[in-house]
């Protein structure tokens, strides 16, 4: 007898409740496999031939015929997932713990010459450490479940200071922020380059296409010196056409004369860039008569300067793949984003203080 006819006869033998459950599973079962198996049976019951089901790309031919035979032999129970009879799963909590310990390291630390991980290498290394070998499909599911992503590493330069000295300096700065009197201000300061030639970065594209970014050809530059208040989130900045000591001195005068005129003393946390410690800057600090005190971070520690995050977000939201035709338009976009960001930062700091 024709298999499709046998499927339809088996369907007729089901109770109305069983038919309703099958339709429900086909529409919204969280188990994708069960959902597909139910859809195959419903398609056959509605008069579609097995070949039509296969041509519709609902499932491969082997699965279609397997589901038909299971349904004919066992009825609705034949559509259940049989993997639960395979015993305990290979991937245990101990296996996942080993994976979380291995992924942050490099294959070179495990005897391989390749510097980056592949799924095959992870399978081999974890097999040596746990005695359990899994397939690539299972590895993909485990990576997804543990939220381990394929990302782009961040290049860094190691701090030349000894660890103890570096930690001591960072603790001193943190203690200063915590114990600063109310009549004094403390800020993170740094400079950022704005180029008319856009920074190129990843973006979503349709398959088989590649977006283009029109560049002006001849590049133009502007430089911003910014200061982020460590207690209030207020962000201020000055602009110049050159990044030199004059730009930093301009920022210091703005902090004292316009941004925080009532502050008894202004503490500035910053990196060791040479424009921050030149003879011109030292002369300007002397003229300010102790109202500004500089606190230098350990070398190559940008993650401890909070304003660095603001500059990264600025590039992501404004300069990355931008389409501005001239510097005036680009700086207008930059100022608009900075004004919006400072309002967001101040609101976040107020909420944190209230909590």
Q: Into which percent range does the helicity of residues fall? A: 40-55%
What summary fits the major beta sheet? Answer: 5 strands, mixed
Task: Let me know the CATH homologous superfamily of the largest domain.
Answer: Ribonuclease H-like superfamily/Ribonuclease H
Instruction: Give the second-level CATH assignment, the architecture of the largest domain.
Output: 2-Layer Sandwich
Distance between the termini: 73 Å
CATH topology of the largest domain: Nucleotidyltransferase, domain 5
Description:
This protein has 355 residues and is of the alpha/beta class. The chain folds into three domains: 3-86, no CATH class; 93-145; 163-204 and 213-354, 2-Layer Sandwich (Nucleotidyltransferase, domain 5), CATH 3.30.420.10. The chain has helices at 3-13, 16-28, 32-45, 50-55, 61-74, 93-102, 119-130, 136-145, 163-179, 245-259, 279-287, 307-319, 327-354; strands at 184-195, 221-229, 235-240, 265-270, 292-296. The chain has a five-stranded mixed beta sheet with strand order 3-2-1-4-5, with helices on both faces. The N and C termini lie far apart (73 Å).
